[in-house]
Amino acid sequence: MMIHEITEKVGKYKDRKRIGRGESSGWGKTSGRGHKGAGSRAGNTYRAYFEGGQMPFARRIPKRGFSNSAFRKNYHVVNLKTLEARLDDGAEVTVESLAALGIVRDATQPLKVLGEGDLTKKLAVTAAKFSASAREKIERAGGSITEVVQKKWMRDRSQKKGKADGDKAPKEKADAGKGQKDEA
After folding, report:
1. 144-147 and 92-93 as β-strands: parallel, antiparallel, unpaired?
2. 134: which of 66, 108, 175, 184 is 20 to 30 A away, CA to CA?
């Protein structure tokens, strides 16, 4: 066998679709675009749900229920087996330290520690949440747990400013003099 006799499998590489090259190209006169209209023109795009002007399906069907997914709290989730494999004995575990090691992507979201796997190393873990099994395994290994208190969103403006409800001074009514005569 010689090098020039080695050929590629037939059909390994598919020829690209050369459109707009005449009727002999195999794609016809209009290159599969049909006649006239926006679809035949260059730069034509429609919104994904556009149905030619009729009421789109997504607007025709009834809407039911609601979702709180926009307000969901997302956590970086880490299991004990990951901490056991990647950290040294006596290490301090925070979301920042895990981000530096590449265990979590970044330090923007709070950390949740789950109890999958065994832990033999003594670790000082600081996180927003712990599962019951993770808490028990960390303490059994001689480690310490610090739960970070998440800041709650404050609904009332008076709470934001640090005012209690009863701290507002009553407004004095301006005397407009209605119904009263000056006695001078």
Report:
1. unpaired
2. 108
Token pair of 90 as six digits? 């006596």
What pTM, to 2 d.p., does this model score?
A: 0.53
Alpha-helical regions (H) of 31-179 = 57-60, 80-86, 95-101, 132-140, 157-160
**CA dihedral sign, ordered 90, 92, 98, 99:** negative
Residue pair 33/40 in contact by the 8 Å Cβ criterion: yes
> How are beta strands 144-147 and 129-130 bridged, if at all?
unpaired
DSSP 147: E
Q: Report the candidate in 148, 154, 69, 152 with the shortest Cα–Cα distance to residue 110.
A: 148
Phi and psi torsions of 93, nearest 5°: -110, 115
What domains can be seen in the chain, in order of their start residue?
Answer: 76-147 (3.100.10.10)
